[in-house]
Amino acid sequence: METVVVLVAGGHGVATSLWCASPGAVLVRYDLAGLSSGVVRRWVDGTLEVLELEHGCVSCTLRHDLLPLLDALGGHVIVDLDPALEPEAVCLALHDRPVRVAAVVTAVDTSTWLAEATGDEELVSDVPGDERTLAQVVVGRTEFADVLVVVGEPDFTLNAVLDRLSPGVPRVSLEELPDALMRLRRVPRFDQVTGSLLRGAPLEPAGDVGVVHFVASRPFHPMRLHMALDVLLDGVVRSRGRLWLVSQPDALLWLESAGGGLHMGEIGRRTDGLQEIVAITWKASEFEITSALREALVTDEEWALADELDFVDPFADHEMEEL
After folding, report:
1. 16-51 b/e with 16+ CB inside 10 Å = b?
2. Contact (CB, 8 A) for 250 and 272
3. Are 147 and 184 in contact (CB under 8 A)?
4. Residue 5 Ramachandran class (φ > 0 left, ψ -120 to 50 alpha, else beta)
């Protein structure tokens, strides 16, 4: 029997409520609070099992427990994800398994979401080596959702941010969720190499919320870009971009930030010279962001002498640069 899964992130009892409204569904919930000690708590329809893993890590929990469990269960399964288990990573892990993800559902708490999404607070996690910020987790699971369950009353600013972060994604109350899932038609997931960075987001400003769309045909100077990236860490909810450095002419790099956390890494080989960065802003100067990025590009002289100059590159030899 095929396993059909709904992944739920963000808490607020959404998974339990959906389970109660879904006769015959199985509810699976994980608690990774003891992961550093190799302990994972898992509930299946309310029955607790304490698992002891040889290696306490998120990927071990996925490979050695969640994936085999979903393979074995069959039918309709609702998975209530611990914050350490991000929906995108789970979907990627399920890609080659006999499991179909019907929907990713994320709860948005209107009283805390914007502050969490724009801050630099570290994620409270028991996962060894976990350096993610709360903003990266909150923004990532919201952006990846097929349906957003809005907890509380959203104000104008939050609606404007969500319009740009998750354009076209249904926003429903907890009571409306079962009907919304029945009507849902999932869309293909974003491709970092070829996907549209704007994703259909409105470009016009809405109060203090706006969108910066930066495009350039020449490469970035690595050190000037490294110094300019701070402009994406203050007053920016989310930025994403495909870019290239004059010091790494063949590499296509991916930039992504949320609140005060940013990472950069290589995603492939560069096939054209177009730089593109999109930033969703809140109380930030679009002019300052654009100016800082433009000043980080190579000059005409630097570009002409690129093969002869020795550029200091803080991004060199790093699979992922954390700032």
Report:
1. bbbbeebeebbbbbbbbbebeeebbbbeeeeeeeee
2. no
3. yes
4. beta
Tens-place pLDDT, residues 232-267: 998 999 999 999 999 998 999 999 999 888 989 999
Give the residue from 245, 281, 288, 251 showing the smallest Cα distance to 267.
Answer: 251
- Alpha-carbon distance of 235 to 33, in angstroms, equals 31
Give 1 or 288, the one with higher predicted confidence: 288
Q: Which two tokens stand for residue 22?
A: 């879904």
Please report where in the chains the tokens 């079962």 appear, as a residue: 178
Looking at this protein, which amino acid is placed at residue 92? L
Q: Which residues pair with 146 in a beta bridge?
A: none
In DSSP terms, 4 is beta-bridged to: 76, 100
Residue 94 to residue 88: CA distance in whole angstroms: 10
**What number is the average pLDDT over the span 77-99?**
89
Token pair of 29 as six digits: 């919930």
Strand stretches in 140-274, DSSP E: 147-151, 171-172, 209-216, 236-245, 248-258, 261-269
The band of 294, judged by pLDDT with boundaries at 50, 70 and 90, is very high
Helix 156-165, helix 134-143: angle, nearest 10: 70
Confidence of residue 47 (pLDDT cuts 50, 70, 90): very high
Percent of the chain with pLDDT over 90: 61
d(CA 228, CA 216): 15
Question: Rounded to whole angstroms, what are the CA distances from 258 to 49, 136, 178, 281?
Answer: 35, 5, 30, 11
